[in-house]
Amino acid sequence: MSNKISIAIVGAGASGLFLAKKLSENSANQLFLFEKSTKVGTKLKASGGGKANILNTDIQDFHYNNVPFMSNFLQKVSSHTIQNELMDMGLKMSVDNENRVYPSTFFSQTVVDVLLQNISEKVTMEKEYEVTKIEPVQSQWRINDYPALFDKVILATGSPAGMIAANRHNYNHFLTYFSLKRSDFRPSLVGFRIKNYYRKLSGCRVKAQVALCQNEQTIFQEKGEVIFKDDGVSGIVILNCSAYYNRLVSKSNCYLSLDLMNGDHSYNLEEHWKNHHSFCGILPPKLNEWYEQKPFDLRDLRMYIEGTYDIEMAQVCTGGIDVSELDAHLQLKKYKNIYVTGELIDIDGVCGGYNLFFAFACAYIVAQEINNGN
Is the pTM of this model over 0.90? Predict the structure, then answer.
């Protein structure tokens, strides 16, 4: 009979809940799940606008900030693997025409409920328990002053994306006990503040082909809806631009180029103006009002970037523990039996289910490693 293995999972988000389910399949594992708040799966519930865009059927390495790492990672686990795992748990899913996968209820609570339903009752769940210290005790690990020692610890706390400043205080403080190469968390998948912004655009929405440019060079381009805010722009296409913006070493001379004709080059704008002396039949009212005050190129409306919105407005963060600190199974090379998953690793993807997939996939890899007796 196998010896019991005491395992602590720190964080009850997507990775933590998936881990608790997979690790509880092995009766040799004694599981403890620590969660800082009163509820579990908080960010998971908020994903996809509350619909939970849990993954994408077209996961490829270039959707992420570290292509070499993700190229190797995706050889171990695919979106198909995770989709099958969730189906086996009883989650029925729907796929839209952009390969985004949702629970068929289009309600994020469904995903949390299914994960919780599949976690063994033998798992000790400690809510409102903030882990601030992790230290070695001979060949095991102690968490705070908890009255049990752990053979393995899995860090699944994610990033502070979406958190107000008060809740970010001392977040992931336990990392100070480890000597690791890591970078500060910065907002990603977030809107932009725009220089010399025309505030009357607030509330306007428009479909456009949007390009992120720097020094007249296109960095990234995509079609989508642009949402005009009080001092800047948002929308999925803008959030994806922000992911590429955050990967730039220098962020000087960056701007968004909005093609308000959405890539339609056949329409003759000069002839339209000659005949109608107005673009009110093409532009939304607020954009048309702006054009009448300060004419611009409808196929190249340039909005110069002042910066991104703050972390509390971000869907995910870039930054975290450098991938060079991890082995192939996401174990810290310097600290045996400490594993890291999800957004705590310096990996972030664009919108569309790529980040939740990464959270689930990390959990799958770690669970496979531990359940196989390593």
Answer: yes
